[in-house]
Structure to design on (251 residues):
């Protein structure tokens, strides 16, 4: 596929289109205008992640990988291979063709990850599970599930990766199915989310780090959790209030 057709795949409109920026070398390769890309603070999140996680020689899984920012960056950080799973066909095709164009070791799978049977027998050193599970009942799973049952099911998704993962990099939203009128936690606070994750992973995982977004001279930086930054900061908006969890499986 030529560059113009790959560019069209990225620019096509969908629910989660242009949800990630592209690595600079790829954006330049297919000439994507900056005003067509909506940043979700990928560079800032990656800066925190790579300060905590060693990717060299690792086998990586990127769940709900969208247009592949974290997949391609993982390879640039030394990962041996990446499996990119994305339910949106255009995003998946974009990553597949861009991987071919750049000779990147990325295996693309076009499906929504249901934390059930997919890749059940494979082990991954590192899993990106970023901003996926709050779409349960929407992008994947039972469409008629109640919010209470959905929360229970979300907490059980970590069980899927027991003995199948060394490190998980995790984020989730405060709103169920992306609906700002459906808070998953009563007060929508970081503390509530942190407690939820602590309870969900207590049996088999350790939380090695929690990254919190802060504003520093009008720039966004993710710092380690502290008594000062645990409070919700509405000036940052909903997305930047989502903590980044670095989880280590307790073998």
């Amino acid at each position: 596929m030529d560059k113009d057709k790959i560019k069209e795949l990225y620019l096509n409109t969908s629910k989660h289109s242009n949800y990630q920026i592209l690595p600079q070398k790829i954006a330049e390769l297919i000439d994507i205008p900056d005003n067509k890309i909506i940043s979700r603070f990928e560079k800032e999140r990656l800066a925190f992640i790579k300060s905590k996680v060693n990717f060299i020689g690792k086998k990586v899984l990127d769940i709900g990988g969208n247009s592949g920012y974290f997949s391609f960056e993982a390879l640039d950080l030394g990962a041996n291979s990446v499996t990119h799973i994305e339910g949106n066909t255009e995003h998946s095709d974009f990553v597949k063709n861009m991987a071919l164009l750049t000779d990147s070791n990325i295996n693309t799978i076009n499906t929504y990850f249901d934390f059930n049977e997919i890749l059940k027998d494979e082990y991954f050193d590192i899993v990106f599970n970023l901003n996926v599970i709050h779409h349960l009942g929407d992008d994947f799973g039972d469409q008629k599930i109640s919010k209470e049952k959905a929360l229970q099911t979300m907490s059980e998704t970590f069980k899927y990766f027991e003995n199948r993962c060394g490190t998980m990099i995790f984020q989730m939203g405060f709103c169920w199915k992306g609906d700002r009128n459906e808070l998953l936690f009563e007060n929508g606070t970081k503390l509530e989310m942190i407690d939820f994750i602590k309870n969900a992973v207590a049996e088999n995982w350790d939380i090695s780090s929690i990254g919190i977004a802060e504003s520093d001279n009008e720039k966004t930086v993710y710092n380690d959790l502290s008594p000062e930054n645990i409070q919700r900061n509405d000036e940052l908006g909903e997305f930047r209030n989502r903590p980044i969890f670095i989880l280590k499986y307790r073998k």
